[in-house]
Specification:
- This protein has one domain.
- α1 packs antiparallel against α2.
- The protein is elongated and about 55 Å long.
- The longest helix is centred in the middle third of the chain and has 33 residues.
- Helices cover 74% and strands 0% of the residues.
- The chain is mainly alpha-helical.
């Protein structure tokens, strides 16, 4: 996937994240809907982290004069366990 494709994916995920957060406020009386939204929100957050990581890898490789297509998406455990 190229940078534009990754950026488009990030934009879609951010839009879904915002929608889920809005629904979370509206669905506060429906425990089942709230739980489902919370699960999906966590999955979206992980995918966002993975997408951002891939985009950063591509940019770093490009800046180093290396083919950015050598970047690869890392698994969720790796990305989520980064120290910040």
């Amino acid at each position: 996937m190229n940078d534009e494709g990754i950026t488009a994916r990030i934009e879609r995920l951010v839009a879904e994240e915002h929608e889920l957060r809005e629904r979370e406020q509206r669905d506060n009386a429906d425990a089942r809907a709230l739980e489902q939204d919370a699960e999906r929100l966590r999955a979206v957050e992980v995918e966002l982290d993975r997408s951002w990581d891939l985009l950063r890898q591509r940019r770093a490789l490009r800046e180093a004069g290396v083919d950015p297509d050598q970047a690869s998406a890392r698994d969720a455990d790796t990305v989520e366990d980064y120290l910040q």
